[in-house]
Amino acid sequence: MIKRLWLIVIGVVVVVSLLVAFKYRGQDRPQYFTSKADRGDIREVVEATGTINAVITVQVGSQDSGTISRLFVDFNSRVKKGQVVAQIDPALFEGTVLQAKGDLANAKANVASARANLERAKATEIQTKADYERAVGLAKESVMSQQQLDLAKANHDSAVAAVSAADAQVTQALAQVQQKEAALTVDYTTIHAPIDGTVIARNVDVGQTVAASLQAPTLFTIAQDLTKMQVYASTDESDVGMIKKGQVVSFKVDAFPRDTFTGRVSQIRMNATTVQNVVTYNTVIDFDNPELKLFPGMTAYITIPVASTSNALRVPNGALRYKPDLSAEEIRALLQQYGMDDKANQPVASVSPSSGASGKQSRAHAPDLENGRNNAEQGRTPRLDVAMLWKLHPDSTLEPVKIRTGITDHTVTEVAEVLKGELKEGEELVTGSMNASKTSGPGMATRRP
Questions:
Q1: What angle do CA 437, 440, 444 make, to 5 degrees?
Q2: Phi then psi dihedrals of residue 184, to 5 deg
Q3: Element (DSSP H or E) covering residue 250
Q4: Is 9 part of a structural domain of the chain?
Q5: DSSP H/E element including 412
Q6: Does the residue 24 lie in any domain?
Q7: pLDDT tens string 223-273
Q8: How would you list the strands of the sheet with 190-192, edge to edge?
Q9: Are 418 and 388 in contact (CB under 8 A)?
Q10: Are 64 and 206 part of one and the same domain?
Q11: Kind plus residue range of the DSSP H or E element containing 60
Q12: Most-buried pick from 231, 325, 392, 398 (CB within 10 A)?
């Protein structure tokens, strides 16, 4: 009876051991994660963020220092060109005004003096001219010596020069009068609006002192026309080549999450901005704001369509990034099995579209199965639009398919052309796999995307 019991126990242990061994052996086979190739529309876009700004914004400053005594406008005030917007206390300038008045009176007196000198010089010139003419007549009759004639001529010439000098003094005195009058009439204590527009910023209050010794302080910021506005969008250098002037752009703002606004690209500025080795360029987008819903300074989330296609054969981007977790010999055998062992026909690069907004594509080296040399060392030119896909058959075997990629929306990518193999709508493509670790215990697994 005991012997029979032992035989039953041993048999149960053997069966359990075989079941466990079979179970773990099954886990050595990889578990694949797949997604189907399908047909549909693809819309490739450039996404960026930007700031809404007025087309023309003017900062209003002050050329004089002093205390703000009055403010005539506030935030959001509509102003006209030449309208008084602020007044600086003129008390400090009253002494300057009095001095200017005194200088003006002095200049006018100088004009009167200069004119009197001019009249005296003209009278002297007339007298010396008459004396000279008499001397000429007497010299002809030999009544007056030549020396006396020369002296009369010199006196006349001197009188003529004196008239010219007196006339110049009159002109100078009149100019000084005009200068003093200008100094008296110029008043920088009254601040006027330089353009028609809306006050979007007021930087001073009544009683505040402004100092204009080094540079003019900004008192107000006036936007000319808020019904015509712009978005300054920072676009990545990899996307600039796809953006063209005149393209229609859509964007959203946080203030109106359900509304979509449209604009048009008006300029791509060549002034680059580099932050942490990331180079961006400002793309200017014009749009209409007739209802004044959007304000300067709002953040805009821009979408710029650059390409689209309809009813295209699409593959998930995960399938483009997948690489089988097989040895070089196993991959070589698969390639030879499906007629892709010719190195000249092997893909020299695999496309890995990023899921980020920048749309950059990362290039993985095609496997050189013997020594792992990359394409540059083999002297071949990389093809960024060629990729290798791996189809999964019902018996869990893999089949390579080489394709040429088209546009992408960073989730799926267009199959522009099947270069090697076959790919049809609905076929399963491997996007990842999971293998049981040979060195880990049951239940421990590694997943390869």
A1: 70
A2: -80, -35
A3: strand 248-253
A4: no
A5: strand 412-420
A6: no
A7: 999 999 999 999 999 899 999 999 999 999 999 999 999 999 999 999 999
A8: 190-192, 84-88, 66-71, 209-210
A9: no
A10: yes
A11: strand 57-61
A12: 231
